[in-house]
Each structure stands twice: as structure tokens, then as C-alpha cells.
Amino acid sequence: MKYTDAIKFLDEWNAIIGYKTPAHHKKILDFLVQSLTETPKRALLLAFRHSGKSSVVGAFAAWVLFMRPETRILILSAESSLSSRMVSHIKHILENHPACKEMLPDVKKEWGSHKLTIKRPIGIREPSVICQGVYGNITGMRSDLIICDDIEVPNTSNTKQKREKLRTRLRELDFVLSPTGAMIYIGTPHTKDTIYKN
């Protein structure tokens, strides 16, 4: 598969779970793939609630690992419970998508709802996918793809002070991201002065 085959990967997954891929999901996936290949490798995807953006993002993450097994992905959400749902979704795809059979580890030492590691080249310290709440400990982590999924929620953005604290925290991600890495923000604005504006 090449980068242009991400849609095929998503179509196959949707067929397995009994769905047909909606047109807007294909547009979302095209946008995500583009964010990996175009400088500055920073992207912002805003979509209405219940649009299925997280479902597409999970398939996208699984596809990235299929294409580049050495990739280290950090999922960051407002709370660790939200980010662990995304990891569980990615795990479910890896376990059930026909293209991913060879990626499953022989020994599932790191294969849970907070982190998982696929078969990949040896010598990589970080898990293939790991999640954290936005204020969780990321000290010492390195990542090739950071997905900030629903980091702006009422608990993190309903006052000016909370929004500034969140912006300060997110600036720290530059120290986690590898020099050639990509960072993608996915969410829905929750306030007029949304952090997604800048």
C-alpha cells in the first residue's frame, strides 16, 4: 500500500464492522494523510460532535503503523480516560483488520488500553502507541506523531486562566516531538476564545 491507499484501508475496516465509509470521512482521512507529508507537519481538524472524527483518526493511526511500524504515536486528550478510549480503538483495529495480522506481537507485553507495541524494528524504547491526559507526565517521552484529540473541553477551557494554562502545556509538546514528526489537533471548539484559534 502507498499513502494514497489509506482510503482502501479505511473502507476495508468499515466493511468488517458493517459500515460504508461516508464521504466526509474520506475527506477527513485525506486531510490527515496530507498532514504527514506537507511541511510544517502541523494540522488542525475541527468537526462537529458525533461526526465520527475519532473513528477515522483511530483507523488513520493504525494505518500509519501499518505503513511505518517504527512510528511512535502519543495520544493526548483532556483526560486519560478519553485518550485510553482512542488507544483501545486503535488496538481493536490492529487485532481485526486483515492488513494488520503480521503486526501483532508474539508476546503481548505492552498491549493494553494505555499503551501498545506492535512488531517493529528492535531498539525503539517507547511503545508504538501511548496515551496521556493533557496534564499527565510526558517527561522524557519522544514521539513521531502526536494526536491531540479533544483536549479542549469545559474542564480545560471554561476560564481564561484554564485556557492559558492549556496553551502553556501544549507548547511543551515541541520537546516531545521528533524533528521530522507531525502534530495533529482534533476537536470541537467549546468556547468563543477557543485555543484552536492560535
List the helices and strands and how they pair.
Elements: H1 6-16, H2 23-37, E1 42-46, H3 53-67, E2 73-77, H4 80-96, E3 115-116, E4 129-133, E5 143-149, H5 154-157, H6 160-171, E6 177-187
Parallel strand pairs: 1-6, 2-4, 2-5, 5-6
Antiparallel strand pairs: 3-4
Helix pairs in contact: 1-3, 2-3, 3-4
Distance between the ends: 35 Å
Strand proportion, as a percent range, falls in: 15-25%
- Sketch the topology as an H/E string, one letter per element: HHEHEHEEEHHE
Question: What low-confidence regions span 5 or more consecutive residues with pLDDT below 50?
Answer: none
Q: How many helical stretches?
A: 6
| Percent range of helical residues | 25-40%
- Radius of gyration computed on alpha carbons: 16 Å
Secondary-structure content class: alpha/beta
Major sheet details: 6 strands, mixed
Q: How many strand units?
A: 6
Any idea what the shape is? globular
Across the major sheet, the strand order is: 1-6-5-2-4-3
Average pLDDT level:
90
